[in-house]
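look at this:
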Amino acid sequence: MGSWLDGLTGWLTAHPQWLGLAIFVVACVECLAIAGLIVPGTVVLFAIAVLAGHGSLSLGQTLLLGYAGGLLGDALSYAIGRRYHQDIKRIPLLVRHPQWMESAENYFHRYGVEGLLIGRFIGPLRPMLPLIAGMLEMPLIRFALVSLLAAAGWSVAYLLPGWATGAAFRLPLPPGFWPEAGVVAGGLAILVGLSINSSLRRHTRATLWVALMSLALLLALLIGWPYLTHLDNGLMQLVQEHRTQAVDPFVAMTTAMGDFRTQFMLAAAVVLILAIHRQWRHFIFATGALLGTALCNAALKMHFARGRPEVLNDPLSTYSMPSGHASASFALFLTLALLAGLGQAPRMRIMWLVVACIPASMIAASRIYLGVHWPTDVLAGALLACCLCAVSLAANRHFGGSMPAVASRVWWWILPAVAAILGWHLATTLPHAMAHYQYGAQPL
């Protein structure tokens, strides 16, 4: 595959006008039934996204093309399943590999709609689940809503790293950028690897290990951030290089999702619903994770008193490390993911955490885009939330044993409440941002 991929990237480098079409087509094939299992679309997408990041396409164009291609692949797979039903199993390739259909069908029967959302991020399942949904005649509107949401997160998760890598190689970054980036990336890789390995192996102290590793990385970052100035300045330069006034209002709307008022309303709604339904152990866990993160963030921010970047014309007077938006958003979404994963298989628990990190990362990244926080501020906030969520969960299990799954009736209250709060946020923030946000002004 190496020579073939080198040939493709070489041709696209010489003909950058075809990059957009290439992203769209490869994203479509990666999400297309059967074809997505054969074509190494993930590797190809990363390589093409790197080329796009060199300056041929903006980040917004890259993500939008990948999003559209993924939606088309989903729609075609669903239509094929809806049209041919069980006759699809007679395809020679599926006759030789019946496990492809069997695993996807069993997964869909077990997890339903949430499995369609989570399965988007599991390579062997991604192209097959829309096909199964069509075969089993899942309502079109329900499938479309899930696909619209899942494809958005998938586009960000699969294309943003490649595009950012290409953009980083294009810019003249500080000389110490890559060594510092390597150290930080290595630490995060150890944390992620430890979390996945201990979860899959069902270690009894997996949560405690994750908490200790998160704490160690957080302490290293809080002590060592003065030695990561090349990383901070390089990433800030990279982000500000691609900042545009057209995108500013939407990023301001995203960052407002992490404001104290919005996060307080979301957290209060979650813990109040858990208390009303007498889910006391889940209530204690959620309260400990959310309240503990907020208190520790405030204490650390006052202790380190780190100044904010000088991107804003009118810098905020409060201190920047750790980022309150990052810690609050990661604490909220990780708490919801951990609650959703109770009683499920390790792979599903991991995928819930992956999905939860997407909206949290968008809120955290918006702070860097707006120049309100240094990248290490945002990373410290995320690590703080990860540590406190793991500590709260480990303590709950230590004193009370394994927690049962949250009752399904509770989710019928939590999900609409969260959606209503975010919808209210969207309705009140976007018009104001579109009308009043200006480059360099204080974010909303």
